Amino acid sequence: RTSPRRPRHARGVPVSATNPWGVHGHDAAVEALRRAIASGHLAHALLISGPRGCGKETLARRLAQTLVSPSADPTVPDLTTRAARALEQGEFPDVERIARGGVCDESNHDHQKDNSTTIRICQVRRLERVAALAPFGSPRRIFVVDSADDLQPQAAHALLKTLEEPPANALLILLASDPDALLPTIRSRCQEVPLRPMPHAALAAALEAFEGVEPERAAWLARAARGRYGLAKRMHA
After folding, report:
1. pLDDT digits (tens, 9 = 90+) for 191-236
2. What is the side-by-side order of every strand in the sheet holding 95-98?
3. Which ranges constitute the DSSP H helices of 79-213?
4. Which one, 72, 86, 100, 159, has least CB within 10 Å?
5. pLDDT in tens, 84-113
């Protein structure tokens, strides 16, 4: 018998045969998304929720990489490809992050200089326009709203229109630390993927294995970060 092919991965992304997405502590969420991809029933809009630093953005990025650059297994990303590496750096043209201070189509708007504290309606209008365009080099355009908690009320209502009539080749991924703050109509049109903090012992073990953290410090970081892998990594850095 031949051994199963291991997922290919880029340098610095800790993946393994048992954790092919390199997302720690969220096996159930990863498996649910992989099943949806395999069955061809991935929702047009996802809401990934959980406390800050628990891995929402990483999960969204791995999902996008799987869709843009699958390996021999279409539910596992090949992180060695140019597309996957570009996406890791936020430079892949068919995947856009919508966030505070981001771009819009208004030439006189500079949301970084005006210290914008919300995602503006003009940014969502640009999302609507771009979502209707054909993707450059992948099967679909992917938009990550990070975070949906930051949508100003008018922007939230504008986004609802896209969720109600989504373009066939677009996927919207909303990230939220407080999903209860979103419009109920937005939540009802998304498949929810809730994330929870990891048990402290499991997080400490992952920090030791994948980040090279010494056991005593890993245990302290796990407690201080309250089970949130991303926050623990930032604290360690």
Report:
1. 999 999 999 999 999 999 999 999 999 999 999 999 999 999 999 9
2. 95-98, 141-146, 170-176, 45-49, 191-194
3. 82-88, 121-131, 153-164, 184-188, 200-211
4. 72
5. 999 999 999 999 999 999 999 999 999 888
